[in-house]
Amino acid sequence: MKALIFDIDGTLWDSRELVARGYNEHLCSIGRPDLQVDAQRLKSLFGKTMSEIADILFESIEKPERYNVMQRCTDREEVILHQDPCRIAFPGVEETLPKLQAKYRLFIVSNSQCGYPELLIEKMGIGHLIEGHLCFGDTGLPKGDTIRLLMERYGIDDAVYIGDTQGDLEACEKAGIPFIFCGYGFGEPERWDARIEAFSELPQVLETM
Question: Which of 15, 40, 104, 151 is the most exposed place for a label (fewest CB within 10 A)?
Fold first, then answer.
């Protein structure tokens, strides 16, 4: 195994409370407090694309305005995340990533909006560890295609994806790479090639693959 590609939410950190705060501030500002969300509501939505989340949360708003509302929600979310210290990494992530980078090339692929991977990298101080990243906002593509694009861009021919949802599993199947499931995350995929219950277990699991 030469490269590790990480999901963000449910894998590296849990931003749900901060994201919900950003969404709700905007929704209240436009007179739609009835559409407010909380961390539990977002749990089943993280991992989907921004347009998919908008279709679920803002079904009562006509297209294309629902996507404009979603964009403004994510804009406010980013303000909240930039202002907050974001001490929301899962246990073991910050200690384990340097150990992994000593043996593997590290990357991020997310279904997020543009700027979100960069924000995580900045807040966690891991710019020296992550070689590259792509997200839905960059490519407009399904995650499996974004994974393939990243692999082509960086000359990766042997990788594993670490994530936590059914969507991550399906993306791995489309990209043709193994899937390591983070059991502490937000989803319940049908199957996986390996499973971890804590991020610190990842080095040992990789040795067996």
Answer: 40
Mean pLDDT for the stretch of residues 42-60: 90
* 104 φ/ψ angles, rounded to the nearest 5 degrees: -130, 160
Of 47-51, 68-72, 105-109, the poorest mean pLDDT is in 47-51
Number of H helices, E strands in the chain: 10, 6
List the domain boundaries for the chain: 3-14+88-207, 16-83
Query: Tens of pLDDT along 9-37?
Result: 999 999 999 999 999 999 999 999 999 99
CB contact at 8 A, 12 and 120: yes
Q: Say if pTM beats, i.e. exceeds, 0.70.
A: yes
Residue 194 CA to residue 207 CA, distance in Å, equals 11
CA gap 43, 24 in Å, rounded: 16
98/80 Cα distance (integer angstroms): 27
What's the mean pLDDT in 81-107?
97
CATH of 3-14+88-207, one of 3.40.50.1820, 1.10.10.10, 3.40.50.1000, 3.20.10.10: 3.40.50.1000
Q: Give Rg (Cα) of the chain.
A: 17
Backbone angle region of 140, left / alpha / beta, with phi > 0 → left and psi within -120 to 50 → alpha:
left
Tokens representing residue 150 in the block:
């990243």
Measure the CA angle with vertex 156, ends 45 and 51; round to 5°: 20
